[in-house]
Specification:
This protein is an alpha+beta fold. The protein folds into six domains: 37 residues, no CATH class; 162 residues, Topoisomerase II, domain 5 (Alpha-Beta Complex); 85 residues, Gyrase A, domain 2 (2-Layer Sandwich), CATH 3.30.1360.40; 134 residues, Topoisomerase, domain 3 (Orthogonal Bundle); 175 residues, no CATH class; 159 residues, 6 Propeller (Neuraminidase), CATH 2.120.10.90. Helices cover 25% and strands 28% of the residues. The protein has 17 helices and 49 strands. Strands 27, 28, 30, 33 and 34 form a five-stranded mixed sheet that branches. A four-stranded mixed sheet has the order 16-11-10-19. Strands 12-13-15-14 form a four-stranded antiparallel sheet, with helices on one face. The radius of gyration is 42 Å and the shape is elongated.
Length: 871
């Protein structure tokens, strides 16, 4: 440290070994300069052309070198360093990123793979040239504003005259000092459509579209503004009962990072997989093999919940405008880009008009000069001034129709015309050239007068010429919320010490309860009438004398708790039924009235609302006459956990015995199918499939002719191949019309599902086999429209009663041939009327003792049998 001399208040000198240097000024000046440079010159794109400086300089360098052939990227990078004062590595990386977007650069060689994350080859091995699209929409030197490069030796564009919403098409990411930007890529054709809508004064909506495809939920996109968010998922389907296949991945990931996240989730026990195969090449294919008895549907949800198969992206649209950062939505960016394109087109038209008028002016002068032999007037002149004056004088009688005065520069150009050209001058050709120029001038003037229509035509032309292979890749869909507790693998075991009041996964010497996961909540009931929900842990004290412990399910109203308790010591006994849908974790709830000495006398937990019958036995005391009677829990209404319940007795109970196991008192569960998210639900969203009891199943038929029945689990995944989804009636036949590829004939078949636990295919696997119609009506009717034969009258349409056409046969039967003629279309008509016989449920039938039946007679009438009984 340098020595500093300080003066104390008395004026004496003090020597200090420490020097304090204040950096306020330096921080204020230097750091702000640095921050400004990073924001403006490196990280954030300009709104005018959508380029960061390095990207703009790369494109300018490529135009400098453009001769139609490929250039080595190393050569382009070296040329760009004349404009960009940074290293070659940063330029090469930026160029590879542009090339991988497959829009502005025509690439050759190994440019890396955005799907696998593989990097590009070294810049000396790969080549590039500008794409035809880039040459058309990016460059226009006559309307470009130029500036000196960093060393003053070269000129570079301030902004490139981009006539396309390039910033939204490519997207942009950058981190500067104090701010960042993240603009997501959008679909090429949708941007052009939106530009046209804006010019027509119509509304438009823009959503991202990613080169990695996948599925996207844009419910909270917020037009790309701060605070918005999108969710992106991989596209996962079931290949077979033990294999899942991932064909598309979320934006921002690659197959390597995705597989790593799956393996980590497997190691942590969140999911359970057997192995992973990565077959990705030109397209993504990741095979996830599952162990036996692992649900594919639950595993798909678990992949979304615990791995990079689902990611959230928060857009942040920040751009540079007038050397200042601007936060703006993507819709406004598109409007400004479109308006800027209109202005650029106007400038190009004005320049073109000026050039055409100049060409017309000189062509007219040239014709006058040669046709009227004015060049002979200069033969006698000896000075340059005399030559100019002689030509000017000679032109005067013929230039009244010109649109501007003749200048000395015009006359100078006339003197430069060669004798050979004058001698071969053709008046007719000259007039044709002038007429053509006049036509071009009128065309440009028309475009300027109808500038918006011209711009619309320009955008439509870009779409026609370059948009054929740029269809939307990312599917937009509303996602369902996945509850992690429902899909996580139960990789731990839960134990309980009932007497001491401990639960946990480390109590291996105590009573085993069930399998659980490390994110589960556990619900506990004690003999004193207390209840608590707590997170699973190695060892947790929850209260002594535990009577019930289980994994807690949030929002579960089907698990019903039946309880009888004494209200305080010596108080009356109450009975109650309740469910627990939501609680505060680690809070103790009292299920009694809270009096001291209250205790639970009887308790059951019933997953489907079962209501048993119990026998109450009282202690012999005084003059009590009735010491024993039955109580049916089905007579007790289900209420909340805070309900007091009904009084059973005010006397002391000796014991309570189970007399009869209960059946469910809950109504059949109504299930809906939400087409938007393609999931089942019990919340009333979508189409009602019906009310389901425990044994009821769903029928699913796919386009390829596969058919199966499943139990209606809310975690089931459905894909776009499904054409029938309904509640399955085992007695209801399925009717189908299909084209048999091998026999080249149309067939009709009717069948029943023979094995409810197996997926079958009811058509052949020939590649030309096609399912034309499938119906689950009792008596379906179809209309067949035939292809008109050549040179013959068309065959009339034919209505077919499928029930009458063929009887119900086995699922593998070929069926009856419908026709050998070519069919244009098959349409299902309204079915014929059919009355379904209603069966009486066993619980609704009256049971009669055989010895009380004297005789019976069967009377036919409406399908009912009347039993006559002896009184």
């Amino acid at each position: 440290m340098s020595e500093e001399v300080n003066m104390n208040p008395e004026g004496s000198e003090e020597h200090s070994q420490d020097t304090i240097t204040r950096v306020g000024g330096m921080y204020k000046d230097w750091f702000l300069d640095y921050a400004s440079y990073v924001i403006l010159e490196r990280a954030v794109p300009a709104i005018e052309d959508g380029f960061k400086p390095v990207q703009r300089r790369i494109m300018h360098s490529m135009k400098d070198l453009d001769d139609g052939r490929y250039n080595k990227v190393a050569n382009i990078v070296g040329h760009t360093m004349q404009y960009h004062p940074h290293g070659d590595a940063s330029i090469a990386d930026a160029m590879v990123q542009i090339g991988q977007k497959d829009l502005l650069i025509d690439t050759q060689g190994n440019w890396g793979n955005i799907l696998t994350g593989d990097s590009a080859a070294a810049s000396r091995y790969i080549e590039a040239r500008l794409s035809k699209f880039a040459l058309e929409v990016i460059f226009s030197p006559k309307i470009t504003e130029w500036q000196l490069s960093y060393d003053g030796r070269k000129k570079e564009p301030v902004n490139l005259p981009v006539k396309f919403p390039l910033l939204l098409a490519q997207g942009a990411e950058g981190i500067a000092v104090g701010l960042s930007t993240r603009l997501l890529p959008h679909n090429f054709n949708e941007l052009l459509d939106a530009s046209v809508k804006h010019l027509k004064g119509k509304r438009f909506t823009l959503y991202p579209d990613f080169p990695t495809a996948g599925i996207m939920d844009v419910s909270n996109y917020n037009d790309g503004n701060r605070g918005g968010k999108i969710r992106v998922r991989a596209k996962i389907s079931q290949l077979d009962k033990n294999t899942l296949v991932i064909n598309e991945i979320p934006y921002g990931t690659n197959t390597s990072s995705l597989i790593d996240s799956i393996l980590k989730a497997n190691d942590k026990g969140k999911i359970k997989i057997k192995k992973i195969e990565d077959n990705t090449a030109a397209e993504v294919e990741i095979l996830v093999h599952l162990p036996a008895n692992i649900s594919p549907d639950k595993t798909i949800d678990a992949l979304y919940a615990f791995t990079a198969c689902e990611t959230s992206i928060s857009p942040l649209a920040c751009v540079i405008e007038d050397n200042k950062p601007l936060f703006i939505g993507v819709s406004e960016i598109l409007r400004r880009s479109t308006d800027n394109t209109v202005e650029l087109l106007k400038q190009e038209l004005e320049i073109e008009l000026k050039e055409l008028e100049e060409q017309w002016h000189f062509a007219s002068l040239e014709r006058i000069f040669i046709e009227n032999r004015i060049y002979r007037e200069i033969e006698e002149e000896e000075t340059w001034e005399g030559v100019i004056k002689a030509i000017d004088t000679g032109l005067q009688p013929f230039i009244k129709h010109l649109k501007r005065p003749v200048t000395e520069e015009d006359i100078t150009r006339l003197t430069e015309i060669r004798i050979k050209r004058i001698s071969k001058f053709d008046i007719d050709k000259a007039q044709q050239k002038i007429d053509a120029l006049e036509g071009d001038i009128e065309r440009v003037k028309h475009h300027l007068a109808h500038l918006i229509d011209y711009a619309i035509s320009y955008f439509e032309g870009l779409k026609k010429n370059y948009g054929k292979d740029k269809q939307r890749q990312t599917e937009i869909r509303v996602f369902d919320d996945i509850e992690a507790q429902k899909v996580v693998i139960r990789n731990s075991k839960l134990y309980v010490n009932r007497k001491e009041g401990f639960i946990g996964t480390s109590l291996k010497k105590d009573e085993y309860v069930c399998d659980c996961s490390d994110i589960d909540d556990i619900i506990v009931f004690t003999a004193s009438g207390k209840m608590m929900v707590t997170k699973v842990d190695a060892k947790t004290f929850v209260g002594k004398d535990i009577i019930h412990v289980a994994v807690f399910k949030k929002k579960d109203k089907r698990t019903i708790y039946n309880m009888i308790y004494s209200d305080g010591k010596g108080g009356p006994t109450h009975i109650k039924r309740f469910y627990v849908a939501s609680v505060t974790r680690d809070r103790e709830y009292d299920l009694t009235n809270g009096k001291a000495g209250s205790s639970v006398l009887y308790f059951t937990a019933n997953p489907n609302g079962e209501a048993e019958v119990v026998t109450i036995l009282l202690r012999q005391k005084g003059s009590i006459k009735k010491l024993k009677w039955d109580v049916d829990f089905a007579d007790i209404l289900i209420k909340g956990r805070n309900s007091k319940g009904n009084i059973v007795t005010k006397y002391a109970i000796k014991r309570i015995e189970l007399k009869e196991k209960g059946v469910s008192t809950l109504k059949p569960r109504k299930i809906w199918f939400d087409e938007t998210v393609k999931r089942l639900n019990v919340d009333g969203r979508g189409e009602l499939l019906g009310a389901f009891k425990g044994e009821d199943r769903l029928l699913i038929i796919n386009k390829n002719g596969s058919i199966k029945t499943i139990t209606p689990e809310l975690t089931t995944h459905f894909d776009d191949k499904m054409i029938v989804l309904e509640k399955w009636d085992p007695k209801k036949p399925i009717s189908a019309i299909y084209y048999e590829g091998e026999k080249e004939r149309y067939y009709v078949k009717r069948f029943l599902v023979e094995n409810e636990n197996k997926e079958d295919v009811f058509v052949s696997e020939h590649p030309d086999t096609k399912l034309e119609l499938v119906s689950t009506e009792w008596r379906p009717v179809a209309e067949v429209d035939f292809v008109k034969p050549r040179g013959k009258d068309p065959k009339p349409k034919q209505e077919i009663d499928l029930e009458a056409f063929i009887s119900v046969k086995g699922i593998k039967a070929l069926g009856n041939q419908l026709t050998a003629d070519k069919i244009k279309s098959v349409t299902e008509l309204d079915p014929l009327p059919y009355e379904v016989e209603e069966e009486v449920a066993p619980e609704d039938m009256e049971v009669v003792d055989e010895e009380n039946v004297d005789n019976h007679s069967e009377k036919e009438g409406d399908g009912q049998i009347t039993m006559e009984l002896e009184e």
